Amino acid sequence: MQIVIHQTDHTIGNFTQIYKYIENLTRSEDFQDNIHIFPETFLSGYPLQDLVLQKTFIRQYHELLQALRDLFAKIKLSDKTALLVGGLRYEFKDNADIPSNIYNVIYEVTKKSNFNDIYTKCLLPDYDIFDESKYYTPGSAPCIWSHAGCDFGLLICEDMWHSEQYAVNPLQMLMDEANGKELNGIINFSASPWNIDKEEKRIKRASEISRVFKTPFYYVNKVGAEDEIIFDGASFVVNETQVIAKAKSFKSDLMKVEIAKKSKIENLGVAPVGANSWESLFGPHIEKINGKMSLKKLSDDKLDAILGALNLGLQDYARKCGMNKFLVALSGGIDSALVLTLVKLFLKPGQEVEAIYMPSKFSASLSWEISDKLCKNLGIKLHNLPIKFLHSSVQNLFNDNLDPLEGLADENIQSRLRGSLLFARSNQTGAMVINTSNKSELAVGYSTLYGDSVGAISLLGDLYKSEVFALARHINKNFSDIIPVEVIERPPSAELRADQKDEDSLPPYETLDMILESYLSYRYDLPDLLNLGLNKTEVERVIKLILNSEYKRQQFCPILKLKDKSFGFGRRVPICKKVDFNLG
Amino acid sequence: MQIVIHQTDHTIGNFTQIYKYIENLTRSEDFQDNIHIFPETFLSGYPLQDLVLQKTFIRQYHELLQALRDLFAKIKLSDKTALLVGGLRYEFKDNADIPSNIYNVIYEVTKKSNFNDIYTKCLLPDYDIFDESKYYTPGSAPCIWSHAGCDFGLLICEDMWHSEQYAVNPLQMLMDEANGKELNGIINFSASPWNIDKEEKRIKRASEISRVFKTPFYYVNKVGAEDEIIFDGASFVVNETQVIAKAKSFKSDLMKVEIAKKSKIENLGVAPVGANSWESLFGPHIEKINGKMSLKKLSDDKLDAILGALNLGLQDYARKCGMNKFLVALSGGIDSALVLTLVKLFLKPGQEVEAIYMPSKFSASLSWEISDKLCKNLGIKLHNLPIKFLHSSVQNLFNDNLDPLEGLADENIQSRLRGSLLFARSNQTGAMVINTSNKSELAVGYSTLYGDSVGAISLLGDLYKSEVFALARHINKNFSDIIPVEVIERPPSAELRADQKDEDSLPPYETLDMILESYLSYRYDLPDLLNLGLNKTEVERVIKLILNSEYKRQQFCPILKLKDKSFGFGRRVPICKKVDFNLG
């Protein structure tokens, strides 16, 4: 008898696919005599948001449950065979229409049990992207699951992260329940979103719990991207300090692991307080480098993990939306060059990517040379669609009918004409436009709404400009300068007027990124930033830009989430507010 | 001694303004010897979302609290004078940076008390737009406030709406606490968002509670719009079944009311269960008209209230964003004609509105005539900015460099060119572009992303097309056909190809709106809709359109919320999902 960890990726609402996965499993040779464990909410998908309330979803979910019960009613399971499957349990009011309670549970399937729920998630996270209290009712009882002579303590995702933030302590409840008994291990069923620090935190916490119980910790995690949220899988088993098995990151996987011998559980004492995930939102990724506060540098390992995450994020979004063509607008700058390179590197058989370059009279010849060289390096056809004539047509239209286009109006129209042409091409070919904005420009609103900020999904929206450069250099190291070095070395420019440079309007990116990361973590106030040696005028200007550009971010596409604190669903700020209140 | 109800509207984060309001009050002749009551979270603003965690916000909020305490330390209050002010109370962890608990409280100011919190909100709503569990910690104790011989039971907003949905019952706690005592009334401090059914529900519930206690119910509500959310004020006092005082709707107001004599509270029994606000999300506004299920008709009173709400919503958004110019693109259709009319009707002294008409070769001459007539009726200058030439320039560009523009690509480019021109004008004049989409087209994605869907804020995004017509007719009744009747009578068309009509792609709006309202309420499944006598093919098509257009709605501007269930922050649905899961 082994534990089989099913690290799966299914589209939300694709109940047929989920049924088939289980049906196929029942026919596989590994099926009988093993314990099969599945991620949290395997049956329903996650995060569902309001779908969980929609009558159609509820009906189909229950049809799935019934179909699975019917399936197992016909199958003769051996004494040893078991499935532990994450799902939802609904309770309804009298009128049977409105769910009164929805629980996040583990269903058990054995010879004697056909989808009975045995454990309910106790800790419902509400920070950042999480809204679980909005939809779910927490459990309040621990579970030691006994099967074929084995005993396991069960936890669901956040339950392992007990901290002072929560009134209940499921880990302590499990420790108290286990006291005096013998366990073969702890199993945690997760749908745990990835970010660059998440995997090591999980293993550290699991190891901490394993050491307390002196028994292995089995961690099964969902894989796959759901809009902006990336689930990395990376399921693992840790025995005290040693990771004894590890599944793939960013890919579906199936992993068989031995069941450890029983350990006697006694004198456990007080549950160790977990690293508080909520608090990590307040921890800016900054550090002192050469005596100066800077954004924390991303290690090669982390850059590789980011590549894995972006790959899964893009590909799952495309697959789940039914798209297999991509379209990127090249400007001759680093962001679009990196995005095109990423899409090309991530391309699967049968998929295509196309690039368009749309120069204006302000576009340097270097911009064309870079774009041309990049596309040659990548083996991608580059379309040239100059906007000079269109731009002057618009200028004439305004001259003749309204007022002459000048300044910002004349800059932005170029960007918006490009956005329009880009989406015209997208309409022609059915290609998905990949956004090319980075986190720094998103933060300060240094982009044109409906112009360069357009797209279906953003790959770089959670990477500061200096991290965009780092990722480009990292790729060049591994792919022999596939991104022309000229684009890494030239000073960034929007090229919307003559001799424009980003640094005319913004602090140098190194400083800007440091201010942004500090401020966006919630934790740094103006006086704190000045204490770090930053310039008051500069800091005030940046904070004002952040506060004033909320309206642009609220119309932005989903951004693949790579950090603790990202723009998107997990960061919610009103548009209307007094903008200089932080500058007192 | 009277109760003075302060129905106020302040910009979030404008602490100076809030301080001055109180400072001015202390100098007013009504100040001494009265009880001044303020809305929930008067001191901090609401909804704050993540601002509540931002260190700068927290610091400045505490500076305000300190400044107010300093102010009252210097003022000699009479025995009778009191203020009850909604605000936040923060608790911090050891490191003093991260708030460990944030409470929504009522602060008391009297001769002996200088901003002491006396009551904490017990029920934290999490449905729809609400996320209060995400940020706040609930209270658990009732409060009977005694002052100068008077006694009042206190509640904050949702506390009065006890229902089965909540584990605690603050109304019951207050009833138990009051038992055997004498009360002068119940005071509810609210920041209660408006929707078309909300006011009557509030009064009904307050009256129900007043009848139980046999003492008046004082309801003080915030006024003002915060992005999409509109707070209507409409503070009131109800004594059993009689409304004895009522403040203005959609405007700041100050209302003095008498304090009732004491009532002996005894034998109250069990608290009446409230109308469950959460459940109302599941209640579609549909009814049987002439034997056929239809969208519920809006009465004249409700249409008037919608006008008040839209007026406040637009004006507060503009004021809080510092804008005083508006810009509307006219198409010759009903939506843009109504939007322009609304903006003009809402205009304040010193504000301006401008209209642009951007015809293509598919624009009927009637579209120009309607736009021209409307602008003459409204006294607005109409700019004509034909896109014919630009459109053919783009066609040539694609012909010469890529593939000829055809079909959808050729339709959408017209809409996007208009979006670009519109925002170029906005950049020129600093005017705010008002979006012209309606709820029906938003629901089915019958609009062009970055094209006709652009704008800073949407006035009609919570009104179905048939309600748009009803509102236009309502205005025409009161303003002698200010909107040309031709636009109400012509069949709706996007005019992006020859002889295009909305009904070529969509069911008649009457049917469409009925399906949309039913489905969007969560409560109607395909079989339910078929039971209502609707056509299966039609219903399936509409549901598919809703599910497939989520990506467009996620890039949409804030929509002024008029209904229980609206697109926007309160409706959260993943983009990636299997789209035909509802059609099983």
From TrEMBL, chains A, B:
This protein's UniProt keywords: ATP-binding, Ligase, NAD, Nucleotide-binding
Gene3D superfamilies: Carbon-nitrogen hydrolase, HUPs
SUPFAM superfamilies xref list: Adenine nucleotide alpha hydrolases-like, Carbon-nitrogen hydrolase
Protein's organism: Halobacteriovorax vibrionivorans
InterPro entries reported for this sequence: C-N_Hydrolase, C-N_Hydrolase_sf, Gln-dep_NAD_synthase, NAD/GMP_synthase, NAD_synthase, Rossmann-like_a/b/a_fold
Similarity field: In the C-terminal section; belongs to the NAD synthetase family.
Domain spans labelled NAD/GMP synthase: 309-555
Reactions accelerated catalytically: deamido-NAD(+) + L-glutamine + ATP + H2O = L-glutamate + AMP + diphosphate + NAD(+) + H(+)
Entry's Gene Ontology molecular function annotations: NAD+ synthase (glutamine-hydrolyzing) activity
Pfam families: CN_hydrolase (PF00795), NAD_synthase (PF02540)
Domain CN hydrolase residues, every copy: 14-169
Domain of life: Bacteria
UniProt EC number: 6.3.5.1
Protein name: Glutamine-dependent NAD(+) synthetase
Keyword presence, Chaperone: no
Pathway where it operates: Cofactor biosynthesis; NAD(+) biosynthesis; NAD(+) from deamido-NAD(+) (L-Gln route): step 1/1
EC class: ligase
